[in-house]
Amino acid sequence: MLYEDLAGRLGAQIRRGLLRPGERLPSLRRLGRQEKVSIATAVEAYLRLEREGLVEARERSGYFVRARAVPPPQARLPRVQSRAPQTLRNPALLGVLDVLSREDLLPLHVTTPAAELLPGRALAAATARTLRRDPGLALAYGAPQGLLQLREQIARRYLGCGVEVDPAEVVITAGAMEAISLALRCVTRAGDVVLLETPTYYGILQAVAALGLRAIEVPSRGSAGIDAAAVRTALERHPVRAAVLVPNFNNPNGSLTGDDDKRAIVAACGERGVVVIEDDLYGELAYSGERPAPLRRYAGRARVITCSSWSKTLAPGLRVGWALAGDHVDDIVRAKCFSSVATASLPQRAIGEYFARHDFDRSLRRLRRELATNAQRWRDAIRRSWPDGTRVSEPAGGVSLWLELAGGVDGQALFEAAMAHGIGCLPGHLFSLRGDYRGHLRLGLGLAWNARVEDGLRELGRLAGRLA
Ligand SMILES: Cc1ncc(COP(=O)(O)O)c(C=O)c1O
């Protein structure tokens, strides 16, 4: 907001002593002219500074810096478990950028399905048809909220898992990650506390850190996912503003939170006015084909913002995702507009065309089957050639495999050794704010199985054995 910005700048000048105690501040008219804002904005800015105890109004004389500026009331600091926001300085995260940009690696770290497992040809045809039909498509901005046809498509899809979605509350974004960032921006302010499960996706940790938020981490119980009782306890102890959770096949540990816990988590958050931002990216990737419910199913539209995308099921490179923004839709559309105007029109139209003419469910069935088989192949390969005592997750969906290394091997050391051998993997401590999970490693299950993958897994096991 304009007035907040102006008040922030004036407040900083007062705190730095550039505007001295007792000094008269510019009249509203002059401030308006000086800052090129309306008088109403200037009034709002002074009122805000007055509330903060930095300025005082004197009748018929205007605004003055308070004789002894009262410091703004300090928010009571919760006893947080983590030392967030430290994430952006975590050297391991820079390492990730390194891995992601190296094209020479055997990408055992990726959690996107290989091209062979996605309907690339159908999508290419849909894109070509779209452009043929509307060659001027790229010559104009799209609407900030996104293409209506696609929003309707998304709403229809959620009906299949018992969630009623109004296309008017859907915002199309550049992937799930943008949806999560925008949602966080709309429901929190810097310094707020957010609740996360641990381990969790490093992109969420980065988003939290980038917004200057502090985090409480609630441990996830292996394959059973998020424990509602632990969430309730954390909410009782800390002034949590929002929660960011991945209840369906979390990355990295593949955990699936049960329906009872989901219901109880949503209820506990609702009682305290905590907005839940749900990352449902892997919800469609249950190996059994039985799609688990999103948290949204158990809450009203005011309380859960569901974020997802087609990155894991259709086309990561198109960067099309969404937020079921519910009552937050206006804020999220505004935030989207100010951050990137709108999601690119061509990929949105191409996906719309793909859905109109092709069988997404068929492609999804094949993908789920392949991922389920991969999970088994990866686990078998690890059992055959990794040190005894290596523990491996047994996911029921998603694209991640989570390993607890045997013999006290450090995940970072194994990651570095693997990189030197041209193999990609990710160290466990990337998935925690506090650098936990040093003894863990995350692999992706997205590659098509072949001799190279088998050799790569064997080689990783050999390296783990050498380090043990
Ligand atoms: C849990 C989770 N959320 C979000 C993302 C990013 O999704 P998108 O490509 O849709 O931005 C990923 C990517 O791996 C992920 O694992």
Mind explaining what this structure looks like?
The strands form three sheets. This protein has a seven-stranded mixed beta sheet with strand order 3-9-8-7-6-4-5, sandwiched between helices. It has a four-stranded antiparallel beta sheet with strand order 10-11-13-12, covered by helices on one side. It has a two-stranded antiparallel sheet with strand order 1-2. It has 468 residues and is α/β, with parallel strands linked by helices. 42% of the residues lie in helices and 13% in strands. It contains 15 helices and 13 strands. The model is unreliable at 70-88 (pLDDT under 50). Bound molecules: pyridoxal-5'-phosphate (PLP). Pyridoxal-5'-phosphate binds at residues 111, 175-177, 201, 203, 246, 251, 279, 281, 309, 311, 316, 321. The site of pyridoxal-5'-phosphate has 14 residues, from α7.
Structure at a glance:
The chain has 15 helices and 13 strands. The chain has helices at residues 2-15, 28-35, 39-51, 91-101, 120-133, 148-159, 175-187, 202-210, 228-237, 259-271, 329-340, 345-357, 360-385, 411-420, 451-467; strands spanning 55-58, 62-65, 170-173, 193-198, 214-219, 240-245, 275-279, 304-309, 321-324, 391-392, 400-404, 426-427, 440-444. 46% of the residues are buried.
